[in-house]
Fold:
Amino acid sequence: MAVVSMKALLESGVHFGHQTRRWNPRMAQYIFTARNGIHIIDLQKTMQRLKVAYQGMKEVAANGGKVLFVGTKKQAQAAIEEYSKKCGMFYVAERWLGGLLTNYHTVSHSIQRLKNLEKMSETGQWDAETKKEILDLSNELKKKQKVLSGIKDMGKLPDALFIIDPKREAIAVNEARKLGIPIFAVVDTNCNPDEIDFPVPGNDDAIRAISLFLDAMSRAIIEGQSGGQSEAEEILEMAAEVEEGAGEPAAAAAAPPEKEEAPTELKKVTEAKEEYRQRYEDEFSADKDKW
Structure:
């Protein structure tokens, strides 16, 4: 079963890359064609790589690992925060602090300072005497919350990174590579996939595309944390248990309808796949005016 359907990828605009003059030649293996100076990403490759990344992320979560979501561009900030909280992980959505990974000991002091300021704010007992000093501490609290709120409870280095636009987050990529931390990332046609352990080719500028990838990774984490079972698998197992408990007579009575419904279901799936495939081909063979 696909992690994300071809229809969802198309509707989210995942296949649109950057201008051909801005491409990175190492992305050639993931590019389908070019239209009107824009590279078109091969969505079959996207589905394959997303499936690999999904399994890798699920394994990290199953082993109790912590994941840091990184995306500081405006289109990604809200989604990064939303989906990282959804799966109980950490995020950097405002600004990547240089040395966040390679000099985490120093960054942890800033985190502790943030916690102290928050405690002062909650109790109203500021470590100051004048109104100006209290105002300065309040401003310091706001600045630190803006940058550190997503990692204040991380406690240690993350076990993996999921990055939106690794070209923009080059410092984060370099720090993670130095420390041997696995990197999962959405790579557009202007990125270098060789620097990423689990690259997923796709549009890293469209809000819908970013949300689609973040949703997939958050589901992988939740599935890994729950023991590797997705909701669909749990429902199937429950259905199997119900069928077993119904007894042989009920099973025998239910057998004929299953034989009749199976071809119908198979036909529906086949027709749906053919529709997605045809729509996918139409996107790439469209006239110039339709892009």
